[in-house]
Design a protein that fits this description.
The protein is an all-alpha fold and 145 residues long. It has five helices and no strands. It has two domains: 3-78, no CATH class; 95-143, no CATH class. It has helices at 3-31, 38-62, 67-78, 80-129, 134-143.
Amino acid sequence: MTWLEEQAIRWLPIGAGLAIGTSARYGLMLSEGRRLTWRSVVADTLMIGLVALVASETADRLGLSGTSAALLSATLAISSDRVIRLVRERFARRVEASLIEDIDRAKGEVRQAVALEISGRNIIDDTMTGRAPEDYVTLRRERLP
């Protein structure tokens, strides 16, 4: 089987499902008495690529192919605006959690560096003013010639 045939087997059911789901979405809008505008058609056209990727990934993870993948993609296309919103919110939550974790780690490293600096400065000041404990003075004599 060639690469082109493999891609056709993978993507044609998803494309058919997206077409069916999008037309069902428009039919639902019309049956509810809402007008179909150019703005909604353009918005759906712009969202359909991401919906196709979500459908493809979900179908792969679930092991779906053929009509099952088409049904999945049609279902996602009917509620594409909600799917996009859900994907965006979950992505934003993951990014936020990752950033908070990175920030907390950086704060800890900065706190350690500052504490080390303050501790070192206090040891030096105490040693120079003669307030250092005897252990510090002994260590200094042993290390310095």
